[in-house]
Design a protein that fits this description.
By secondary structure, the protein is mostly helical. The chain has helices at 7-14, 20-28, 30-52, 61-89, 99-110, 124-127, 131-140. The termini are far apart.
């Protein structure tokens, strides 16, 4: 007697394939015949379940993943928003908080003219200074 059939061979026989020798063994061996009937029964149950579809009230897997994705996006936005809000609340190190005063001080230092008095105030002549006068000074020299 030949050795019993493998699970793969039983599957091929169930699908209508296999050699004449394997089919003859299936008819002669009660153990292989029982395994083949059990396989046929299992495949029948699987086919019935697939034909029936999901039970009523079951959530479609695609909808479940959409809900998970929406939840993940909401959490990411909430964490990102909280991080941005917290970052906006903390002033940068070394800043006085008033940017316009710092800009005016920097502009006064960079664009200081000889008409600036010792007290730091500009004379009336320097206050009326415009771009044309600036260009004229460049070409006339000091």
């Amino acid at each position: 007697m030949s050795p019993c059939l493998t699970e793969r061979t039983l599957m091929l026989l169930q699908a209508g394939e296999g050699s004449a020798e394997e089919r003859a063994h299936l008819r002669a061996c009660p153990r292989c015949a029982a395994r083949h009937r059990a396989l046929a029964d299992d495949l029948g149950v699987i086919a019935d379940a697939l034909r029936a579809g999901p039970p009523p009230g079951a959530v479609h897997p695609r909808l479940r993943w959409r809900a998970v994705g929406a939840l993940a996006a909401t959490v990411a936005l909430a964490v990102g928003g909280a991080w941005m809000w917290r970052a906006a609340q903390v002033p940068p190190p070394g800043s006085g908080g008033d940017v316009s005063a710092q800009v005016e001080d920097l502009a006064g230092t960079l664009f200081a003219t000889s008409e600036v008095t010792a007290a730091g105030e500009q004379s009336d002549e320097a206050a009326g200074f415009d771009e044309d006068d600036e260009l004229a000074l460049l070409f006339e020299g000091p």
